[in-house]
Write a structure and sequence with these properties.
By secondary structure, the protein is α+β, with helices and mostly antiparallel strands. Helix content is 28%, strand content 39%. It contains three helices and ten strands.
């Protein structure tokens, strides 16, 4: 039990240290256009407009910004295929069912059980698997400092 409390405190402190760096740091450059191809559908999204993707079996729900509104699109594509098409320095897989644009993350909650990424544009939290913590958290610290 004491080990759990110790780890919980460490993870909460890390989350608390990262949050101030995340707030108010927005990059406004259109860098890259992401092209997503699935069956007969081809979708082009600017990297800065991509928010996240959630997979359920062979379908992925994409969340992105179009004309200042949040769009949600369901495609028949596996998450591994989608990741191979959209992965960049800021767009990473953070869970077996989620891909997230790390530049859009505004807040972070976490403890020894894992972290949750918060994007203000969407109404749910994105989990970070323990196996992805070593990739995601340092990148958030680096990109937001």
């Amino acid at each position: 039990m004491s080990r759990y409390i110790y780890l919980k405190n460490i993870h909460e402190n890390i989350a608390r240290d990262i949050v101030p760096q995340l707030i108010g740091n927005i990059e406004n450059s259109k860098e890259k256009i992401l092209t997503i191809t699935s069956n007969n559908i081809e979708l082009a999204i600017a990297e800065e407009d991509f928010l996240c993707a959630q997979s359920m079996e062979n379908y992925c729900t994409l969340y992105f910004i179009e004309n200042n509104t949040i769009k949600k699109l369901l495609l028949r594509i596996s998450i591994s295929n989608l990741l191979s098409q959209v992965e960049t320095d800021s767009i990473k897989k953070c869970h077996r069912s989620f891909i997230v644009n790390l530049k859009k993350v505004k807040n972070l909650k976490g403890n020894a059980q894992g972290y949750k990424l918060i994007l203000p544009e969407i109404d749910f939290e994105i989990p970070v698997s323990r196996s992805f913590i070593s990739d995601i958290i340092p990148q958030l610290q680096q990109s937001k400092s």
